Every structure is written in structure tokens, then in C-alpha cells.
């Protein structure tokens, strides 16, 4: 199993190219199930989750090819499809649930294993199921599978007004994709406003879908008879950009994050600026970029924050910013409101010398900790990233075990870090 060896204490300097977003690429790969035409995505990140999704789509009968060099992929499913997502392929990946809506909309039946993904809470999919039921699907959950079908005699899902009990990102995406081919109008109330949802909607519109209001809490969809192929570039990964920004803040340095989009990182950048980090938007020939400059954690003030749905502070940045708070100056409180079990990094950060006390959903952090290298274990994707950030600051060598979590969602993280001066290597043992 691969591990990372990191020797801390280096400032980060240079440029990082931010990859396409995992949480946009995965639903967009599933959207290719909605049409018999070829679909081409560019800027797809090189991730384990993308490889798993590729295998899943291929197992259903889709032709998937890598095209070109810049993360290009072509998807084509003109022939018969086997609408089944088996446990063996979906157990590691939350986004596999996103096959359900498109398969049901196109074929009228689907069988999808209850999904895996980061073990950060119970993560039920009841809202996906009740939304699809409201659109006329008959659904039962048995033997770990969601079995969904249209009633006898029906060819298409029915448009419906759906208000989810809470804001759900993949729930919104699943219902949005299903609604594109439904009969009549669907209105999604309490919809997720995350940039990845909006990017998926943009792709679906390129495929001929009639969608309005994406990026807001009410999305309206007029169903169409068929969708056609399209070409779409996956939006830049705001969480990868945020992770690198926080790493530079903690170590000190000056790094340009190419393709990063400030408008998608509002809450995180605000906290970084309040902490004392200099963050500037820059225009480059290839589009937007962010320059992050920091004198290092000794010059920064720890920040209180609460996670919440977009445009609030993203739960997917909580662990990384907590690592920064451990070494920045002063006391801070971090509250996690989205997932009930997303503090697993706390015990591992403590091994490096962090001083954190968890009470319910709030972590109290005493800053200015002098971290020292140790062996730590990655427990989930963003927890892994927080350990890498802490290790970049810690004195001496840190070994991060179980980095398969990191590989699920970061595109060549250690190469990118090494290129800006980090002392980091991957070892297989
Ligand atoms: C592949 C993907 O895009 N993953 C992201 C997505 O996960 P994911 O879409 O799974 O997260 P949700 O937005 O659905 O979850 C939000 C909250 O709603 C609850 N819930 C959700 C659906 C449901 O049917 N019932 C229910 O109770 C969840 O347990 C959680 O407490 O959004 C999360 C919140 O921004 C991110 O951390 C994940 O990186
Ligand atoms: C929780 C995450 O991923 P997933 O939903 O795929 O488990 C994440 O990206 O931080």
C-alpha cells in the first residue's frame, strides 16, 4: 500500500495547475447515460474515483475512451445498456448513486447498489428515492440495492414539484438529470447551489436540456423527448484550489493557482484574508488564477468558522482549514454542520502535536502548536489532505498511511506539491 513521506519546513513557491473538479466530473460522466450520441468531456481529473466511474459505465455497456492529452474522455452508449451498478464497483464511491436518475430516465428501470464514499456520516439517499418516487418511479430497497422502475405502461418519468428535506448535492444532481427526460415540468425547490451542480446543468443544456435557475435554490426543468451529444469542459476544482491555498498559507510562500476561480471560493478566501493571507485574482492567457502569499502560520490568526451549504464554508475544506488553525496564532472554534462524523482527522492531527478538543459538532483548537513529524493514518479524503498540510509544517518526517483516500480525489497531489518546493515522496510498501 502506498504511503507519503513528508519532511516539513519548506516554503512553497511557484505555480500549480488546478485540475477539473471530481464532484463535477463524476455526475457529468453519468450524464452521458442520458443519450445515445457520443459525449466528450475535457479537463477530467486523473483520479481513482474517475477510474472507478469509468469501470462502472463500461460494465453497463458504455464505450469509454481517453482522447487527447488534457483530460479528454469520450463516452458513447448507442447499443444496449445493462442498467445495474453492482456493489463491488460502487462500494468505494459515493457518486455511483448518480447513475440512478439517468438510467431510470432513459431506460425506465435501474438497479443501483447503495453507495460507499467517505465514511463521514450515515449519508442516506432517502431524498434521491423520494424525489424519483414523486416523479412516478416505483422503488424498493432490498439486499443493499435500490431497485427502481416505471409503472407498467409508462414510458417516461413525470415532471413534479420536489422540495427536498435538506439541501443535497448529489440528490439535486440525480433529480436534475432524471427531470431532463421526464414528461412536463419539474421544479426542484431547496436545490443545492454548488458550482458543480451549475456546471452539470450547463452540460445538460449543451445536450439539449431545458433548464433554468441552476445556481439558485429553485431549478426549473422542462422535460424533452431526447438529449443529444455535446462537448463540455469540467469546471476547475474549487476544493483542490482551496487545499493548495491553505497549504501555502500554513507553510508560507507565494504560489499562483492556475485555473482557480475566486468566485467559487468566496467563504474560504474571506477566512484566509481575515487570517492575514494575501490572495489576489489574476488573469492569465488561459483564464482565471489566484495568487496566494503568506508569511507562514506564525504570522496568521486562527479563524472561527462553521461549515454550511454553498455559498457557505464548504465541509470539504473543514479538515484542511483546521490543520491551518492548529499552527496559526490564537484559539479557534470549528463547527461541522453537514456531516455528523467528520472529525476523524482530529486524533491524527493530535499525533503531530495539535491541541484540539471536540465537543459534539464543534472542535476547539489551541493554535501555535509546534508540530513534529510522526506516522499518521489517512481516514478519508479531506482528512488525508489536512494531514499533508500539517506534515508540510511539522518539524521532521511524517509518514501518511492509507493514501488511497487521497488518490480518490486529488490529481497527482504529491507531484504538484513537489513542483512548488515541498519535500514529499510516495513510497510503496
Ligand atoms: C460526489 C459529491 O458530490 N460529493 C459531495 C456531496 O456529497 P453528497 O451529495 O453525498 O452530500 P449531500 O449534499 O447529499 O449531503 C448533505 C447532508 O444531507 C444528508 N442527506 C443527503 C441526501 C439524502 O438523501 N438524505 C440525507 O439525509 C447527508 O447525510 C448530509 O448530512 O456534497 C457534500 C456536501 O457538500 C460533499 O461533502 C461531497 O464531497
Ligand atoms: C466527501 C467527499 O467525497 P464523496 O462524496 O465522493 O465521498 C469529498 O469530496 O470530500
UniProtKB/TrEMBL annotation:
Catalyzed reactions: phosphoenolpyruvate + UDP-N-acetyl-alpha-D-glucosamine = UDP-N-acetyl-3-O-(1-carboxyvinyl)-alpha-D-glucosamine + phosphate
CDD domains xref list: UdpNAET
Modification sites for 2-(S-cysteinyl)pyruvic acid O-phosphothioketal: 118
EC primary class: transferase
Boundaries of every Enolpyruvate transferase domain copy: 7-417
Cellular component terms (Gene Ontology): cytoplasm
UniProt KW Electron transport keyword: no
Compartment(s): Cytoplasm
Amino acids binding phosphoenolpyruvate: 22-23
Gene Ontology molecular function terms on file: UDP-N-acetylglucosamine 1-carboxyvinyltransferase activity
E.C. number: 2.5.1.7
The protein's annotated pathway: Cell wall biogenesis; peptidoglycan biosynthesis
UniProt-listed NCBIfam families: murA, PRK09369.1
Function: Cell wall formation. Adds enolpyruvyl to UDP-N-acetylglucosamine.
Protein name: UDP-N-acetylglucosamine 1-carboxyvinyltransferase
Organism: Ottowia cancrivicina
Gene that encodes it: murA
Amino acid at each position: 500500500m502506498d504511503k507519503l513521506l513528508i519532511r516539513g519546513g519548506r516554503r512553497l513557491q511557484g505555480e500549480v495547475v488546478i485540475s477539473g473538479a471530481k464532484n463535477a466530473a463524476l455526475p457529468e460522466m453519468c450524464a452521458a447515460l442520458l443519450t445515445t450520441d457520443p459525449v466528450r468531456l475535457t479537463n477530467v481529473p486523473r483520479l481513482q474515483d474517475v477510474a472507478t466511474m469509468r469501470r462502472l459505465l463500461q460494465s453497463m455497456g458504455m464505450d469509454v475512451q481517453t482522447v487527447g492529452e488534457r483530460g479528454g474522455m469520450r463516452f458513447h452508449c448507442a447499443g444496449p445498456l445493462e442498467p445495474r451498478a453492482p456493489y463491488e464497483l460502487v462500494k468505494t464511491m459515493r457518486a455511483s448513486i448518480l447513475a440512478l436518475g439517468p438510467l431510470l430516465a432513459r431506460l425506465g428501470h435501474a438497479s443501483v447498489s447503495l453507495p460507499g464514499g467517505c465514511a463521514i456520516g450515515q449519508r442516506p439517499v432517502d431524498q434521491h428515492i423520494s424525489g424519483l418516487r414523486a416523479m412516478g418511479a416505483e422503488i424498493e430497497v432490498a439486499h443493499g440495492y435500490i431497485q427502481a422502475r416505471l409503472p407498467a405502461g409508462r414510458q417516461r418519468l413525470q415532471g413534479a414539484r420536489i422540495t427536498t428535506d435538506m439541501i443535497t448535492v448529489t440528490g439535486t444532481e440525480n433529480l436534475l438529470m432524471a427531470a431532463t427526460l421526464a414528461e412536463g415540468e419539474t421544479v426542484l425547490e431547496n436545490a443545492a447551489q454548488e458550482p458543480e451542480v451549475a456546471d452539470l446543468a450547463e452540460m445538460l443544456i449543451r445536450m439539449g436540456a431545458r433548464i433554468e435557475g441552476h445556481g439558485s435554490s429553485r431549478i426549473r426543468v422542462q422535460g424533452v423527448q431526447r438529449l443529444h451529444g455535446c462537448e463540455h469542459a469540467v469546471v476547475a476544482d474549487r476544493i483542490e484550489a482551496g487545499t493548495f491555498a491553505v497549504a501555502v498559507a500554513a507553510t508560507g510562500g507565494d504560489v499562483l493557482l492556475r485555473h482557480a476561480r475566486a468566485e467559487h471560493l468566496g467563504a474560504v478566501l474571506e477566512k484566509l484574508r481575515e487570517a492575514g493571507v494575501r490572495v489576489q485574482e489574476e488573469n492569465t492567457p488561459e483564464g482565471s488564477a489566484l495568487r496566494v502569499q503568506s508569511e507562514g502560520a506564525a504570522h496568521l490568526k486562527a479563524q472561527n468558522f462553521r461549515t454550511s451549504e454553498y455559498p457557505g464554508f464548504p465541509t470539504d475544506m473543514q479538515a484542511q482549514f483546521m490543520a491551518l488553525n492548529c499552527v496559526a496564532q490564537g484559539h479557534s472554534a470549528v463547527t461541522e454542520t453537514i456531516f455528523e462524523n467528520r472529525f476523524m482527522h482530529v486524533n491524527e492531527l493530535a499525533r503531530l502535536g495539535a491541541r484540539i478538543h471536540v465537543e459534539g459538532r464543534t472542535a476547539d483548537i489551541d493554535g501555535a502548536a509546534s508540530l513534529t513529524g510522526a506516522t499518521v493514518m489517512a481516514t478519508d479524503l479531506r482528512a488525508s489532505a489536512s494531514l499533508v498540510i500539517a506534515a508540510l509544517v511539522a518539524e521532521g518526517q511524517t509518514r501518511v498511511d492509507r493514501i488511497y483516500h487521497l488518490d480518490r480525489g486529488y490529481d497527482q497531489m504529491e507531484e504538484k506539491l513537489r513542483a512548488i518546493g515541498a519535500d514529499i515522496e510516495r513510497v510503496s510498501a
